[in-house]
Q: What sequence folds into this?
């Protein structure tokens, strides 16, 4: 399995984390976006959408971080990360939150990361007014998620799942908020 | 601009995720 990533991509980081969690023998290939390596014919042959992460496993070419994470978890048999059974009847689980991209429709990592002014302790501080406005749009959903996490350790179920990884990688870019 | 993060449960959860070795292993330097 070969995984094409770039360290500045939170989407790629999701796939990287899952690859490490599964322990699968995954070869990591860094794609230098600044040099336009993602636009080279050799990479376009793997992913015509020219984005990272991209996964190659034999004849399979896979992109979109959620799909790659699910593929890796399934390949490793990690049903703890990506459960194959629906939640038990009567158990209140946040199906909407388990959705791999629960916050992607609002301030996506892409929209906020392009203007990151500096990086500190894993968080990226965003200072442009336009980007702060985008973060503010997400505040109601953050409040919902904060309330959901009261009294529980993980977003879904009682252990780490892909939902936690997907959310955490996105939230890496959302530590700063407008006053 | 003033930064604010008033989501204590979200913050605690994030610390749990960050504690996983796989998270640390993929963190950017700096």
A:
């Amino acid at each position: 399995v070969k995984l094409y990533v770039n360290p500045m991509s939170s989407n790629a980081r999701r796939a990287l984390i899952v690859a490490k969690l599964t322990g699968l023998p995954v070869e990591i290939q860094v794609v230098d976006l600044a040099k336009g390596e993602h636009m080279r014919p050799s990479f376009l042959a793997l992913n015509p959408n020219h984005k990272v992460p991209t996964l190659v496993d034999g004849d399979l070419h896979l992109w979109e971080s959620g799909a790659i994470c699910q593929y890796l978890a399934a390949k490793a048999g990690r049903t703890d990360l990506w459960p194959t059974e629906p939640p038990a009847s009567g158990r209140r689980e946040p199906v909407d939150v388990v959705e791999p991209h629960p916050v992607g429709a609002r301030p996506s990592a892409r929209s906020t990361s392009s203007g990151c002014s500096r990086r500190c302790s894993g968080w990226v501080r965003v200072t442009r007014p336009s980007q702060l406005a985008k973060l503010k749009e997400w505040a109601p959903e953050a409040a919902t998620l904060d309330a959901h996490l009261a009294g529980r350790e993980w977003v879904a179920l009682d252990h780490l799942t892909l939902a936690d990884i997907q959310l955490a990688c996105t939230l890496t870019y959302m530590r700063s908020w407008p006053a | 601009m003033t930064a604010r993060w008033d989501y204590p449960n979200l913050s605690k959860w994030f610390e749990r995720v960050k504690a996983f070795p796989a998270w640390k292993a993929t963190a950017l330097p700096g």
Observations:
- Strands of chain A lie at 2-5, 27-30, 54-57, 60-63, 118-120, 123-125.
- The interface with chain B takes residues 7-8, 13, 16-18, 20-21, 119-120, 122, 125, 127, 129, 132, 142-143, 145-150, 153-155, 160, 164-165, 168, 171, 175-179 of chain A (CB under 8 Å).
